[in-house]
Fold each of these.
Amino acid sequence: MAQKSYDVIIVGSGHSGGMAAKILTERGANVLMLNAGPVLDGTRDRVNKFAYELPYRGFGKPGRLSHVVQANEFNANQWVDEQEVPYTHDPANPYNWVRVRTFGGRSLYWARQSFRLSDYEFKSSEWGDSSENSWPISHADMDPFYRRVEGIFRVSGRNEGNLPQFPDGNLIEPNRQPDSTTIQRVTDLAQKRGWGVSKMRSSGGIGGLAASTNLLIPDALATGKLDIANNAIVREVSIDKATGLANGVHVVDRHSRQERLVKAKIIVLAAGTLESTRIVLNSGIANSSGLVGRYHSDQIYGVQVYASVPEARDGKAPQGLMGGQAFLPRFRNIRKDALSKFAGGYCAMIGSGQGAQAGHFPLYGAELQKKLASYAGSVVNGTIYGERPARYENHVRINKTVSDAWGIPALHIDVKDGPNEFAMAKDAADTFEEMFKTLGWEVFAKHDKFHPPGYSIHEVGTMRMGDNPKKSVLNKWCQSHDIKNLFAVDGSSFVTCGWQNPTITILALSMRASEHIADEIAKKNL
Amino acid sequence: MKRRRFFKSLAVVPAGTVLLAQQPATQPAPTPAAPPAGRGARGGRGGGAPAAPPAAVPDIGITAVGEQVQKFFTATQFATLKRLADHLHPAENGDPSAVECHAPEFLDFLLSVSPAPEQATYRVGLDLLNSKARTQFKKAFADLDAKQVDTIIKPLVVAVPWAWALPKDPGERILYVANRDLRTAHRNSREYAEAGIASGRRQPFPQAFLLPVDPTYKG
């Protein structure tokens, strides 16, 4: 039987793959989407249980998913099995690679925070970062695509009159509720210091779901030009030796392990940052720069400072004193006359009206319960999303001695924290402490520790874009410098991560790259 | 996949637990077809698949019968843990204690299948508590009265503002870890849930549990 021929193969069904499928099929391309896992069925695959009904009373099976802090015994089966698809790292430098391989990928589970990068991130090298860390594009290049993505994903939030570090967007502005007194005091203090203050921005999606499976792929299917193959694990990209171009992908059937070669004119990798890079490394292609796998970047999460508002203790908070949240977009390294000792920036989130936690006090039993009851509702908490800047030495490579259940060589991840991360975390913790004390609140818990790399699930880079083929893997269209019909439209093209959750930028980049592909097909350049 | 089937499956892919909470607490059990009288499901004499089970097989659950066989702790370590559990999580406000909820027994099972570092935390820590009791009161930790237990554990209870940076001191570490784990094993027990329902003070809600979506294929 003659095989159906495709214009484009998209590897991955998450946000970036879904966006590529939508744009390319709507522009007339015949597309095959390959998804490494099965399709979840909410009625077939889930049941409701009490913790005591589970084998481990909610603790989870010890040792399983040791890298996935987000896992618990209820959701353990949604994550990639670390024995089935292993990766390695130096035990001294742990890396938490959090993966999902069901249809829709991590788009089914993301936290939906939706912040654009600003030119402080696109042109990071101008703001204290390494001279290597600027993108070949700017916010102005991305703005039209951000607008369209924000529309599709129904992003809500507050425009602030175009703060340079927090560009306005195509946002649904919710009704403005008055801030609580504590949040207003935080806001006043921050603004007195020249820092911007806003609210979180979040993708509403439809029905509480902002995934590729409900916002993107249905549009692609409606064109009649999208085929989807599930349980299809891509081993490597196939290259036509005569032309040097990609001509397909080798795919392993997840169930039978039968391998097939599926052909297409254009290959779009959208498997998630490190999976796409793994495919390219295992293919031994597109690496004339020697930079495939290099310049990993993500974010530090964990820094926490807690303060108690004295007049709110023992349930005595007057109405309107506590509650709500202030959001401070990047406020470090935004003035050239006041650059920090660390590169990059962080955003600060300050919540009001919470309680304390048992671990905050050196107490137990009745004494602890009394303390927790007294502090309930009186707590203000500060935490950050901070950039872990891209560095050459933070990289991934193939571990030739370890393979997954399908015989595909595994990734070795060599990413470690450096002085920049520690300095940023300390700055954040000290800043919160100073602010809360200035406001007359009792700081009772503070730490500047943070999770290992990968924890944020915001890993990006490793196939960075750039204008110079010797210093980058992809061009500004997410297109391989070496192989013109090979694209990577997920987070792997990032040059810098920024403090922002990367999804909305990944979506905008995928949309932009996909429109470029469609244009090039129309011009017969691809 | 046919388009209609695809959209049907999308309609049930949930957004976290939000949609899942709307599902019924338990899946309705399928009603098996009545087997032919006196024959296997395939109708063959003594062969083929077994007859379908009756509509409801009574099952009281293995945890309702017999006693758990202790696998991990020594007798002294287990007695120390039990004393600690009784002291930190006593019966109060009508709820059963951690001991009454068999939290120490559950931790014995959990630790028996845990990685070595977690096992060492408990073994070293519980031995240390017992050793302190012997030194200070010439008694096993399990035999201390409440005041004596306080004397030993109070200096070991420290603030842990970052739950992933456990205290390095083995005494401080066991106090934090055991307190945390006993609390979870206590609050997540069937006995604690049933006591809440019986008193009308708590109505536990089930959570969505994702079944293994596919068999895994290894090696």
Amino acid sequence: MKVNTMHKKFTFYLLALLFLPLVFSYCSANLQSNQIQFGITAAQRGLWDEAIFRWKKAVQSNPDSSAAHNNLAVAYEIKRNWDEAKKEYETALKLSPNNSHIKANFENFMKNLEAREEDDTKKKNEK
Amino acid sequence: MKNNKFILILFLLFFASCSSVSYFRVDVEISRKAIFDINQFKEIIVTDFFIKKESDSFDLNQEVVNYFTTQMKQNLKPEVSSRRISFPNEEIFKDKSFWKSILPDSQETVLFTGTVDYLEEVRKAIVQTKKKRDEAFSRDKAIEERRFYTINLNFYFIDAQTGEVLYTQAFKETQGYKNPKQTGAFAFYDLADTVKVKLFNNVLGTARTQKRYLIKD
């Protein structure tokens, strides 16, 4: 009876030991291969150049990824590269026209762009 | 039983570490350039304003000059002071020689001036009011009064050296008050605050934070 219980315990801990490294290696492998997630992590730390690099890679490997295009657009917006940002938002919206997050990003971006253009026109008129 | 719990926790940890939300929110600072960059000057001289319609209850010119002198001192980089001048007429804003003569030897100095009028009116309207507490659904008609104050400010930023108008902008703000005892002087500060925010946005530029979504896939 005692031997049986010990055997069960041993099997359980052995399984647990095998299972844990599997979990961590799976997650880290997944993270490393996922350029989008990598870019997000970089962006959250303020490393926008690194994020752009990662999301460009993601676009290269999958040009139909609306997430990669959207994220690139956000990064270009931060970098004040309005033309590229607009292009990327438009591509992202073409790929996922019903995505509410992309829509919200694009609407806010366009409002700012229009306000900026209005300011520039006012300035020109003043001159 | 204990072992089952341990396995359950392991599974939960597995899913918590590998599963994730579909989006992340990040802050984006959106800056808007100044339409007329006031900080390029060393000094701002706030002069008197041309009063188109005076307020009955307070000295409108004095309040406008004091208010904007104080606000500019607090918010702008250049040195700010005020100077008394007298206006022959409203057309004077186009007369370069007049403005040049105020501070003939000045450099990098801008004159801040303009026209102002202040209107007060009482508007009446018939409104429906509840009759009594025990007659919650019955309504009565009554006349209610609101006091409305309107300020029209037309600002001019004039180069003291050349007398040229560098930037001009007009504002019209109206505010209504339920309180019949509301004074014009008190309302002036509410209206001036609104104008100030808009004016300073144009001469200083603004920065505000917006949210953007980063999508995981």
Amino acid sequence: MASRLASWSRKRSPWVFHVNASSCNGCDIELVAAFTPRYDLERFGVVLVPSPRHADVLVVTGVVNPQTKERLQRIYEQIPEPKHVIAVGACALSGGVFQGCYNAGQGVDSVIPVDLYIPGCPPRPEAIIYGIRKLLGEKDETHSGN
Amino acid sequence: MARRMRHTVETSAVDLFTLIEKKLSPANAKRETGSDRLLVLRVPQDQLIASLKLLTEEMGLKHLSTITGLDIGDSIELNYQFWHSDRIVDIKTSVSKTDPRIETCTPIIPGAVLYEMEVHDMFGVTFQGHPWMDRKLLLPDNYPKDLPPPLLKGTSSEKIRKAVGIEK
């Protein structure tokens, strides 16, 4: 009974912890803009939390360079199960425009397992909302993805 | 109808730039390319601190925007960029690659402490008198000691990636 309640609340109100793993901040700006009243991610119950121990979903932006790689692994380990990881932006998918650079990683999935990828440079807030809802398994009637 | 306020207080760009050139000419400053918004002056390495002192204390250019480096073959060119209202003044100097040392400008411009650390990390230039030359600002702690700094032209990205642990 309690676990049904817990999984219902995780799906209806996922709490998100955002990590900037050496991003240029473009994706971070679009992610935070998705929480503003104009795009309004909070109507789905999504809340940004200050600690990974309170989170259900980890959102990672940026090309993961050697310094942020170990911090990202530590943060991922602190999130309690069940957890999901979303990689936002071209850099988080594969290294983006910085592929091959002396310090550019090969995407977030070379460091931690990723459940959802949101491409774009940066992705629009609508794309981020569409992605998060897809992760939660919501079905959208309209094609616009809102 | 109110007139638009001008956001510069000097009379014209040419006056300021000729003043700077005249002020710095004892230091053998040579003017390179530029427009009426950009002044590029090249000074010899030993005259750099004196020129910066003149600029900041007597010409009123207090905002050092950045210090950039460029690998031009057998020397590394340092570019001290000043931002003055809507104009930019570049002071360029060269440091040889075999002995890349130059005096620090932090006594004159304390804010340059991070810029010099970045040039030290990326090009290997040592700024004598800088308080934190033993620390790395941007490079990871496991950066290999036997490889050259990353932004020099001959450095191989693949070797660095393998050594730092990004690629196998």
Amino acid sequence: MSEIDADAAASQKLRKSERVKRKGNRTSEDGDSAGLGKGRAAAFVAPAMLLIAIFLVFPALWTLYLGLTNYRLTGFAATHPRFVGIDNYVNALTDSRFLNSLGLTLLFVLGSAVIGQSVLGFAIAWMMTRVRKGVKSVVEFFVLLAWIVPSSVSTFLWLALLDRNNGTLNTLFGTGTTAWLLQFPMQSIIVFNTWVGTAFSMLLFSSALGAVPPTQLESSKIAGAGAWAQLRDVIFPHIRSHVLTNTILITLWTFNTFTPYLLTAGGPDHRSEILPVYIYRLALSEGSLGQGSAVSLIMILINLVIALVYLRILREKKS
Amino acid sequence: MKHLGRTKFAVSSMALLSLTLTGCIGGGSSSTPVNPSQNADAKDVTLSISANAILGGKSDAEAVWITKSVIPKFEAEQKAKGVNVKVSFNPSGVEDEAFKSKMSLALKAHTAADLVELDGIWTGEFADAGYIKPLNDVVGKEKVTAWDGWKQIQPGIQQFTSYNGQAYGIPEGTDGRVIYFNKKLFQKAGLPADWQPKSWADILSAAEKLKSLSGVTPLQINAGTPMGEATTMQGFLPLLQGTGQPVYKDGKWQGASQGVKDVLDFYGKIYGSAKLGDPLLQQETDGRSKSFQLFADGKLGIIIEGDYLWRSVINPKGGIAPMADRDTVVGWAKIPAQAPGKGVNGTDFVSMSGGGGVFLNPDSKYPQQAWELLTFMNSAKILEDKFIPTPQLSARDDVNAAVLGKDPLLTYIAKEVLPVSGFRPGVAVDPQVSLAIEDATGKAASGTSGEAAAQDYEKALEQLVDKSNVFK
């Protein structure tokens, strides 16, 4: 198939170049501003399309297919899956465990990404514009460290921190034997994820803040603007698009993150079972691959919606 | 033109994908016919063994035995026959449920070891999925029946690695559950060192006395999902056996019966109203390990566990929570029925037993040599290498006769506990029922009433098996 394609592309290219010679340069008129011609353009895009097809489109379609069966990891249905139509989707949407999980995920995204990472990341970046360079480097180093330490290591540290019997937190604050991960599972993973991911927002915002013209800040100061007024009327208008980019990226990452599993495994009693953890437990621990696929597809759709909203907002801003 | 091109591309890639999709699932594991004589005469052979055991961690003794005894001795024996065999060991040291997922994925992807050590309760679902196949098909009936070890293994124990009357592997051993207690704590609380509770009420009253000791959790009966199978085998099922009916009888499952409600109420009492156990321990992801540690540290009075606790956890030699004074401090008793005579078949005492075995991967490139290794591992001589240092109830009568006398607990289990013990139903849906059980006990331990938890359990059960297959 690829050889035929290449031949076709080559001959098309030849024809195209002849046409270009005959009619003069009309490329910009038909939208071909790079002057590549369709064949070459296709050849450039093909590897990317192939990768997307193999690693994105194919798994998504396969997930769609599996979600329509009662496929299981073990047992009879592992070799003889039956087509069950949209049963899995109906089950998911009417299952209180799924709805609980969806609610927890939204809370998790809102708490740890939209509020936690963005606000904290911005606050640190903002403060770092007013301190000496040495202090800035040290702070940034530690924030980055939380981001780059492998999650298996950092969750182990957090388990030691939050442990009920010999945990660092209980020792420091004299909180007795508070079982943080059991009594406050959602709060724990929200704080944890904020801690892990703040570095990205911080980096993005510090470069954005660097682009705010100092002259505007100076003149606003002379005009008597306080810190809040400066933030709202001078800085924010400059970094609005960065805020948007940051929010959408961390929303998607947080929506899909699996790391909290290492802390609470979704427990106790499903109280921190965010969607990725729910899918893992459903598909692999409980072996319901079909049902798990259906929920995965629902999750893909939610991700797509978030991405579309983002693209729409960006486009509106440009026009 | 441009749009047409895009559509064409989309259509052709969709067609390609749907071609790939057709028959993608299911095809893999059933399509490859097994050829027992494959590579039977090979002179250079590589084999591998997977087990949930790892040096210095989980089931250390097993890992030591495989790497220090089985592998070198088998390789030497084969070398003497002129066959150059290289055997490797793939260790794991994780929760049983995680190991099960790992093994099912490995077998499904045709990348598993030649021999895999699995829990007997998984036999049905692995066999139904085609991940394991009858030994008769993989090795050849003649070879299998010719093995002299079968007559040493009792039919009940052979069931662990059999499904629908076909043997899929060779069982390694069995176990039994008892109620352990700490004699030192008992003495402090004014309880006898030769304690033998005769009813659930006796357990509660002893725990009630232990409550007066500070820093001591009186009682631990496993509940909830994080403990996995330990909840089912060491908690719910032995208790349920004590209410008169087994969980599975004549092809039907026990639903929200009086017995199930009583068991769940008992959990509610322990972790709720009577405050005799630690409900948080049932929710923590590593709650079981913590309960082991508490018991080893003398901070837990009573715990229902299998002989695994004695052999592999608090064993002063090689246990994961070694207890130097185990032999003098730890006492044990039979698990009582709810009340005398209330056990299944009218017994006063109850227990549950299960066991694992080693299965032959149907994808093995060297099925004959793998079978030789499997039988070598289960020969009396090589099993003694494992069981003399750390005695355990072996599947083989001749090995038991040689090793059990050395260990008081295992002798006790063999004589007193196994005769009243129940076995898990060997059906494929059993592990899923087990998940529903774990969920129900977890709810009961964290405050849901026995009645409500039992109703939820029955609802979950009816999604797994037909309503007509549920009894009360």
